[in-house]
Amino acid sequence: MEVEIFRYRPEEESEPTFQSYEVPFNEEWVVLDAINYIKDEIDGTISHRWSCRMGVCGSCGMMVNRVPRLTCAAFLKEYYPRKIRVEPLDGFPVERDLVTEMDVFVSKLTDVSPWIIRNEGEEKPIEEGTYLQSPRELAEYKQYSMCINCMLCYAACPVFALDTNFLGPAAIALGQRYNMDSRDQGRNQRQEVIASHDGVWHCTFVGECSAVCPKDVDPAGAIQRAKLSSTTDYFKDLLMPWGKRK
Amino acid sequence: MSYIRKVPNTWWLQRKPYFLFIVRELTSVAVAGYCGFLLYLMYALSKGRPAYSAATDLLTHPASYTLHTIGLLLVLYHTITWFNVTPKVLVFHLGEEKVPAVVIAGAHYAGWLATSALVAWLLLGTGTSV
Question: Is there a contact between A227 and B89 if contact means CB atoms under 8 Å apart?
Answer without folding.
Answer: yes
